[in-house]
Amino acid sequence: MALVLRELCEYAYAQIADYQGVSVPVAKSRIARGRQLSRLP
After folding, report:
1. CB 16 within 8 A of CB 31
2. Number of domains in the chain
3. Cα–Cα distances in angstroms (integers) from residue 14 to residues 2, 17, 20, 38, in the given order
4. Interhelix angle for 13-20 vs 24-38, to 10°?
5. 16: how many CB neighbours lie within 10 A of its CB?
6. CA 6, 4, 32, 15: dihedral to nearest 10 degrees?
7. Reported pTM
8. What is the per-residue pLDDT for 18?
9. Number of CB atoms found within 10 A of residue 23's CB
């Protein structure tokens, strides 16, 4: 969900963190993990 909010909805990291009820570093981590998973063959 975080990756969709960032890439498609162009939310800021702080907006995503607030929406998910987590800190900004956690939101960034989730986005990074989502990007890694989306590149798997």
Report:
1. yes
2. 1
3. 11, 5, 10, 22
4. 100
5. 23
6. 40
7. 0.83
8. 97
9. 13
pLDDT in tens, 1-41: 899 999 999 999 999 999 999 999 999 999 999 999 988 77
Range of 14's domain? Answer: 2-38
Calpha distance 8→41 (Å, rounded): 22
User: Which amino acid would we find at residue 41?
Assistant: P
Q: Is the Cα torsion angle 12, 18, 21, 25 positive or negative in sign?
A: positive
Contacts of 38 (CB under 8 A, 6+ apart): 3
**21: three-class secondary structure by DSSP:** coil
